[in-house]
Amino acid sequence: MAPRTARPTPAPTAPESERRARAEAIFARLSAARPDPHTELVYKDPFTLLVAVVLSAQATDKAVNKATERLFAVAPTPRALLALGEERLREYVKSLGFFRNKAKNLIALSRAIVEEHGGEVPRAREALERLPGVGRKTANVVLNEAFGEPTIAVDTHVFRVANRTGIAPGKTPLEVEKKLLEVTPERFRKGAHHWLILHGRYVCKARKPACDRCPISDLCDYYRTTAAKEAGKGS
Ligand code: SF4
After folding, report:
1. What atom of ligand 1 comes closest to residue 210's alpha carbon?
2. What are φ and ψ of residue 232, in 5° steps?
3. Would you kindly state where each structural domain of the chain is located, as residue ranges?
4. I want to staple 121 with a disulfide (CB 3.0 to 4.6 A). Which of 46, 109, 137, 156 is the partner?
């Protein structure tokens, strides 16, 4: 199911050239505030990142970091996680939503990594997406953060900000991802999803976007539409 986002009245989709120019200006501003963005999940290699990202579905990064701090002290590799076993793994992650399913997937993906990839997290998208519990978003995060690829992972925050600003409107995460890749200048692609996640998490919040302190409000469709509506009410 596509993440939900609030838009007052959908603004007509702007031409790609216009969205491209706005995206460039938006990333220029967001990157100036945070030149070297990284995930807030704590990890030390591709495997621990993969585990943390799988655990982060329906959970905050803070809660995941708390659980993985203990887990990675005893099981920081796929072999160690397999040795720990599903039942004991559950004890480490039981504070997180869907922990039973996540523990099951983590054991299955550890087994696949050991048996099919020599104990190393594969670097190819197709191989990553074949691992149990790993979808396109998780693969994009791992490719970007652990392997330095310029992928754009679309989570609920990225989906919302892309739609509200209007730079990459879409009904599904995949549609938004494709449009973001089209309009994001190459030099911003590696950091793009980090900047949009952080902006969505701390400023362009789901229920009540903080438009009054938003550094990109003059580039945002949602703001223009809302401002025009407010002006209409006052006249
Ligand atoms: S002005 Fe900023 S906070 Fe408000 S909807 Fe647009 S991007 Fe989000």
Report:
1. 3
2. -65, -40
3. 16-36+152-225, 46-145
4. 46
Domain 46-145 falls under CATH 1.10.340.30: yes
Pocket of ligand 1 (CB under 6 A): 161, 164-165, 203-204, 209-211, 214, 216-217, 220, 222-223
Class of domain 16-36+152-225: mainly alpha
Q: How far is the CA of 32 from the centre of ligand 1 (A)?
A: 17
Tens of pLDDT, residues 106-120: 999 999 999 999 999
Q: What is the dihedral of CA 167, 23, 211, 199, to 10 degrees?
A: 100
User: With bands split at pLDDT 50, 70 and 90, how would you rate the model's confidence at 9?
Assistant: very low
CA-to-CA distance for 5 and 66, rounded, in angstroms? 29
| Rounded CA separation 4/193 (Å) | 18
Instruction: Report the separation in Å between the CA atom of 228 and the middle of ligand 1, taken as the mean of its atom positions.
Output: 14
Give the residue whose CA is nearest to atom 1 of ligand 1.
217
CA 9 / ligand 1 centre spacing (Å): 14
